[in-house]
Every structure is written in C-alpha cells, then in structure tokens.
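wait is this the right file?? whatever heres the structure
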C-alpha cells in the first residue's frame, strides 16, 4: 500500500491531523489504531439499555479556544452542558472545587462567614487560590482551611488515584488544587462547555470521513509497517513502545471500570460524585446527566485506579515526578534524531492533555510543521 502519511493512533491528535492532511493537503493517509474503535479514550457507545456511556470515564469538553471550538463544530452539533462535581466529605456531598457553598456546607455558620469575609478581602471575589498559597498565609483560619481541604479532598483521592503519597509526585499536581472564591458550582469556567450531541464516536467518524483516509483497527502498526510505503509518520502511541523500551518502561496509572444499571430515573444528583476518603473507588459517573437522555433506567460507572501493566490494561495518566521526567527526556532526545517522524499526543509526549489541549496541539502541529513545509 502506498500512502503519503502513516498515522498511528485514532484519538484526538491522530484523527485531527489525518483530517487536516487529507482535506487541506489532499494527501493520502493510513490511520492505524490498535484498539477495535476510534476516538481514543473519548470513545462512547450505547449500552444494552440504550444509554450513551463513556467507556473510559467521563469526558466533558471545555475550552476557551474559539479556534478549537469552531474546528470541532464542523463535525458535530453540541449539547451545552455545565459539569458539576460533588465530593463525599464528613457525610455530606459538597461542591468541588471547594468554594463558598462548600465552606458553608461543612463548617458552622459563624466560622464560614468569617472565612468568606477573610478570603474575599485578601484575594477578591471570583479568584481561584491554591491550597499551597493558603498554607503560606499568616491567618490561622486560612491555614486551617487549606489543611482541611488537603486532608479531606486531596490526600485520600491522591493516594487512590496515584498509588503514592502527595509528596511523592510533582508539586504541580498539588498546586492545581484550588479553592474557588465564588458560589459558582460549575467544575469548569471555560467559555465553551458541551458534549457532542450524538456522542464523541460519531464526531470522530465525521472527522475521519474523507476519501483520502483509510482506517485500520485492531492493528499494531509495527506488524504492518514494512508492508506500507509512506513518506512520513505521525506517532501518537506510547513513547517507550516506539523505541522498544530501550531505556525501560515509562510508568503510568490505569483505571478499571465497573458499569451498573438500575431501573430508576436517577442514581445521584449530579453526573459525578467523588469519594476521596471512603471506599476503594474514586468516583461514580451517571451518564444520563451528560447525554440528557430520557429513559426508564440509568447507567453509571465506578472508577478504580490501578497500576498500569503493559498488555493487560490501558495507560491513562503519566506519573508526574522527577525520575519519570528524566526517563521521558531520554526518549525525547531520541525523537530529535528522526526527521520523518512527528511525535504528538498524550502518550507520545508523556504528558496529560485535556481534550481541547490535544486538539489545539494537533492543529498547531499541522500549521507549523506540516502546512508550512509545503
């Protein structure tokens, strides 16, 4: 088979680059995916009860980039949706990120009022302040608040999600834990927040629906690479796999999912409820909140973090610490020696991306590295 481009991986990065090359450059692309489906971890499907579920956990699209929003809007209509998350804390379900509503839920009224007044006067209404910042404050009340959020919201969740204590992962993770000085219960505050109206899989089908794109599923690209003639390759798979694990395996965390269905209208008040301190799962997601479907039953999923084992489960989250960064950098140095390979995406970059970040990076790579060279 003769093609211009071999693209490995049919997630956001690979599919968007395939579409741009096929449509704008009018070049032929072979898109190879080792799974039995497109859309990467955003893959969704209708379960046996007719509920649209997300196979790999909830995916809520949000972005401040009009460019990314406009691009994806060419391939889907949207169901506008504002995600809300509750966390089980001290026997109550309170909004996350921790905000003024959360404070009033868990603390006595007079203390909550004092915290709200102190926080607003110190930082201003509507700001997001990390718990690390609050721990540096002179106010004992603010330090208490930061310590409370750390122990009740962050610590237990981190131990389950990452399998290590917070001090064993990069401080950038802790620094992202905010207290939102607002009564806005939305989990995201981005300009654009939505779910593809007919699902992510349908959106991806539309993205790669082009006569210049051929798709191979259930295929390890290394098994067919010598049977294909191509000019360049875009690789979005695991960075260490490309180099046959020359320097060792890059560590990831994985997830196991347990799907349930009940013959009732709703199981919980919002789409996502986190359990930082109880049980051995991290969260429960109920999908009808996302899809807006009307049905006599409801489907939901429990998420159980676990170690990543090659060939047994799926790599989800690169583990952010200095040791792993050093190992990843050794592989990244090798990528610079290859002129005809573009490495991009969460696995190839060994970096976690939100969906809009993956889309933005793909569009940028096309414009700066592919189109500009024509």
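ok assuming it is, sequence goes like this
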């Amino acid at each position: 088979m003769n093609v211009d481009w071999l693209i490995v991986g049919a997630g956001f990065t690979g599919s968007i680059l395939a579409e741009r090359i096929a449509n704008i450059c009018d070049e032929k692309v072979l898109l190879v995916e080792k799974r039995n489906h497109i859309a990467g971890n955003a893959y969704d499907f209708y379960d046996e009860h007719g509920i649209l579920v997300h196979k790999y956990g909830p995916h809520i699209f949000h972005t401040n980039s009009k460019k990314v929003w406009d691009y994806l809007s060419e391939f889907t209509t949207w169901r506008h949706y504002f995600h809300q998350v509750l966390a089980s804390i001290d026997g109550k379900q309170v909004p996350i990120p921790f905000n003024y509503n959360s404070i009033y839920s868990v603390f006595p009224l007079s203390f909550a009022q004092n915290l709200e007044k102190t926080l607003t006067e110190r930082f201003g209404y509507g700001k997001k302040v990390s718990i690390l910042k609050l721990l540096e404050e002179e106010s004992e009340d603010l330090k208490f608040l930061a310590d409370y959020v750390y122990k009740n919201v962050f610590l237990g969740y981190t131990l389950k999600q990452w399998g290590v204590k917070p001090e064993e992962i990069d401080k950038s993770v802790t620094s992202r834990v905010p207290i939102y000085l607002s009564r806005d219960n939305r989990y995201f505050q981005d300009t654009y927040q939505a779910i593809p109206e007919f699902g992510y899989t349908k959106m991806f089908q539309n993205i790669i629906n082009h006569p210049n794109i051929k798709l191979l599923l259930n295929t390890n690209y290394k098994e067919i690479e010598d049977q294909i003639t191509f000019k360049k390759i875009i690789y979005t798979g695991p960075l260490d796999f490309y180099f046959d694990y020359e320097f060792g395996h890059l560590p990831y965390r994985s997830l196991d999912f347990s799907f349930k269905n009940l013959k009732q209208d709703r199981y919980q008040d919002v789409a996502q409820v986190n359990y930082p301190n109880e049980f051995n799962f991290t969260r429960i997601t109920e999908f009808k909140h996302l899809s807006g479907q009307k049905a006599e039953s409801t489907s939901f999923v429990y998420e159980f973090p676990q170690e990543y084992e090659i060939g047994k489960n799926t790599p989800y989250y690169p583990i952010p610490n200095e040791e792993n960064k050093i190992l990843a950098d050794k592989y990244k140095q090798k990528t610079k020696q290859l002129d005809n390979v573009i490495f991009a995406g969460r696995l190839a970059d060994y970096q976690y991306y939100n969906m809009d970040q993956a889309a933005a990076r793909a569009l940028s790579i096309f414009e700066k590295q592919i189109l500009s060279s024509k």
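The chain is about 35% helix and 20% strand. so i think its the right one actually
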